Amino acid sequence: TNPLVGEFTRSIQFDKKLAEYDCVGSIAHARMLAKCNIIPKKDAVKIVFGLNSILNQIKKGSFKVDNSAEDIHTAIQNALDKKIGKSSAMLHTARSRNDQVSLDTRMYCKEEINSILALLAGFRASIKEFSKKNIDVIVPGFTHLQNAQPVLLSHQMLAYCQMLARDMDRLNDCKKRVDVLPLGSCAISGTSLPIDRNFVAKQLGFSKISSN
Known about the structure:
The chain is mainly α. The protein is built from 7 helices and 4 strands. It has helices spanning 3-9, 19-35, 41-60, 72-84, 97-133, 153-178, 197-204, and strands spanning 138-143, 146-152, 180-181, 208-209. Strands 1-2 form a two-stranded antiparallel ribbon. It is elongated and about 75 Å long. The model has no long low-confidence stretch (mean pLDDT 93).
């Protein structure tokens, strides 16, 4: 295979930011597999231990990402293989790369949306405070680059506050759509194994599971 093909299909350079979510999602998945007696509990304990060890390294910035890996999921799986041996292969049970990637992305988006909402809330609070302090200040309002009418500075500033409120509404709507657990969909049409998707959703803080 031409090396350029590998470079084109490799996503490790930009999906590194999903590393923590990949570990957390896999920990919940391993616990579910043990709970449902799909894999032995002793193997699940090894998997969770190994993933927590990798997760701690990621948080400390000491996890060395193998840039030759296809993606962050492969890099973490390879690291887990080295840590705990053959038990790590059981983590693939009742899961495909497809729903794994979708889960990681949704977890990332949920956290980022919450961070943005917090910043916007703080920004709106600052605008309101500024408007309150300048409640009686009058400034010229412009149309077509010409003076149109006198307006209150506070009124003008609170217009931006309202714009940000609409943005926050849109982000909250987006969060509702993202807040759906995809894990369990597997590669195409789910799995015949008796998994407990609601358990995983509760572990990871998702409000519901995907219906199809």
